[in-house]
Amino acid sequence: MTVPRPRIIHAGCVAFRGRGVLILGASGTGKSGLALHLMALGCDLVSDDRTALAAREGVLIAAAPTSIRGRIEARGVGILRARTVSAARVVMAVDLDEIEGERLPPRRSTTLLGVDLPVLHGVTGPHFPAAILQYLKGGRAE
């Protein structure tokens, strides 16, 4: 069996109990800041800024390139060391390039390396990191 080479994308990833959220967005949109907030709530860092993705049997796996493993940028503070997990199954994505305008948004999805994932748009408000963590823990109700 051939193992596919990982594809490195401009994104961050954190995980809670092995369930990862891929944080997408242009430079300066707050990917690392959101990751740091989720880490403060109990998530582990997978990767910051660049994330290696591979699809295996319909599952998307995220890991950090070796050169940046265990490091995260805190704007205005510097590069920080962080506890990491070597890899995580990506179960959702957040796209910070898009801002959510609806109170109860429809279900949205994106496809990465042939794997469909639920995707949330960015939300301005202090509850957003906690809502992402709860989504990782329990999913979204119908």
UniProtKB/TrEMBL annotation:
SUPFAM superfamilies associated with the record: PEP carboxykinase-like
Keywords: Kinase, Transferase
Record flagged with keyword Kinase: yes
Leader sequence segment: none
Name of the protein: HPr kinase/phosphorylase
Example GO BP: regulation of carbohydrate metabolic process
Domain HPr kinase/phosphorylase C-terminal: residue ranges: 8-88
Keyword check for Manganese: no
GO molecular function: ATP binding; phosphorelay sensor kinase activity
Segments passing through the bilayer: none
Top-level taxon of the source organism: Bacteria
